Amino acid sequence: MKKFRSVLDCGKIVWLQFNPQAGHEQAVHRPALVLSPTSY
After folding, report:
1. Strand ranges (E), 1-40
2. Is the pTM of this model over 0.70?
3. Residue 40 in this model has a pLDDT that exceeds 60
C-alpha cells in the first residue's frame, strides 16, 4: 500500500488499517469518516 500525504477535510472518507488488532477482529482496511475540521 502506498503511503501519501493528503488533506483530511471534514466529510472525507479515508481507509484505515488497525494493526495490531486486539481480540478476534480481522486485520483488514476499514473505511472511516473524517469528522474534525482541517484546522483542528
Report:
1. 13-17, 29-33
2. no
3. no
Contact 14, 31 (CB under 8 A): yes
In the block, cell 488533506 appears at: 7
Burial class of 2 by CB neighbour count within 10 A (0 to 12, 13 to 18, 19+): exposed
The CA–CA distances, whole Å, from 27 to 5, 22, 23, 37, 38 equal: 23, 9, 11, 28, 28
CA pair distance 30, 24, nearest whole angstrom: 15
**How far is C-alpha 23 from the chain's CA centre?**
20
User: How open is the CA angle 14-17-34, to the nearest 5 degrees?
Assistant: 25
